[in-house]
Amino acid sequence: MVKAVVLGAAGGIGQPLSLLLKTNPLISELSLYDIVNTPGVAADLSHIATPAKVQGFLPADDGLKKALTGADIVVIPAGVPRKPGMTRDDLFKINAGIVRDLATGIATTAPKAFVLVISNPVNSTVPIVAEVFKKNGVFDPKRIFGVTTLDVVRASTFVSEILGDLSLAPSIKVPVVGGHSGVTIVPLLSQSSHPLPTSLKGDALDKLVNRIQFGGDEVVKAKDGAGSATLSMAYAGAEFAEKLLRAAKGEKGIVAPTYVHLSADKAGGDAIKKEIGKDLDYFSAPVELGPEGVVKINSLGKINEYEQKLIQAALPDLATNIEKGASFIDAPK
Ligand code: NAD
Ligand code: LMR
């Protein structure tokens, strides 16, 4: 029996993500929480002929607590999205407080749940969740994840386009590491499961890397003020949740890049710090998942000179974003 909870379930991501979770046979109970509209979304989804029992909750009558009671996995897509011209960091002002309050609810009601943070800026909101958990004495770095799967999904798609065959997209694996914003997104294309043409270098390679790093902007621009990626994010969030649930059930060898506190696996985390040459607390790396969450943080593998430069370019922003999130919560260190 697995209970999944979506916080921000009535939103652009929340609705399609809840739909995908409702169709996941590993989930037996699905609770939807938002400040608006969850009774309607829940009633709608509840007619789908799959096992999960769906319920909707609003803030009134202790709705957050009721939604979270007994949760095994909590996904957070609550908060405002970007408009053209904004950075993800511009969302901090509003989303930091939203994520802090939701994290407080999880820490006090379902402290053992896996927490999947989608709300931007992920580089800072994950440290916020971690600090709230520390403050409540329930921090377990193995169970808190920043969802960076959309970057991985985009890398697969864009590489398949370069290879001229979109049907390859589902099987193309490219590790994307670092963080989740602009230059902190670092695709390790030299490790692509499907090698790129050797002719792809110079400007053409820069262009592909830039497209993966700024894929979010492509959608924000196309939506022209109506928000950012929602459907592709729902797909990516459901994919990561599915991997975690399969690993929790005991399936071995499931590895996915995700943004975690590097103490989740001390040896692996220390090795990452060595590889990047900086003592950061958080980094998105390929993580092996298991019943307790993080089993092992894997090495970044063989990185070429070009990728090492991308990593070095990511570090200053990443350090600033992490500090901004962590210091938002006044937790004992
Ligand atoms: P949206 O505005 O469509 O939906 C957000 C939902 O959050 C709304 O339904 C709103 O009512 C709800 N909400 C606001 N405050 C809340 C609170 N205190 N408690 C519960 N729910 C609350 O936005 P969206 O397009 O779904 O995007 C949501 C977030 O996800 C944004 O911050 C966006 O930047 C981020 N995002 C992250 C990724 C990623 O790769 N990690 C990808 C896309 C979007
Ligand atoms: C994305 O990568 O699509 C999301 O982080 C949303 C955004 O603001 O770009």
Automatic annotation (TrEMBL):
Return the protein name.
Malate dehydrogenase
Lactate/malate dehydrogenase C-terminal domain segment(s):
148-328
An example molecular function term from Gene Ontology annotations: L-malate dehydrogenase (NAD+) activity
Protein keywords: NAD, Oxidoreductase, Tricarboxylic acid cycle
The residues listed in the UniProt record as binding substrate, with positions renumbered to this chain, are R82, R88, N120, R154
Binding sites annotated in the UniProt record for NAD(+):
G8, A9, A10, G11, G12, I13, G14, D34, N95, I118, S119, N120, M233
Highest taxon of source:
Eukaryota
Q: What is its EC number?
A: 1.1.1.37
- What taxonomic classification does the UniProt entry list for its organism? Eukaryota, Fungi, Dikarya, Basidiomycota, Agaricomycotina
Active site residues per record: H180
Return the similarity comment: Belongs to the LDH/MDH superfamily. MDH type 1 family.
Keyword NAD attached: yes
Matching entries from PANTHER family are given as: MALATE AND LACTATE DEHYDROGENASE (PTHR11540), MALATE DEHYDROGENASE, MITOCHONDRIAL (PTHR11540:SF16)
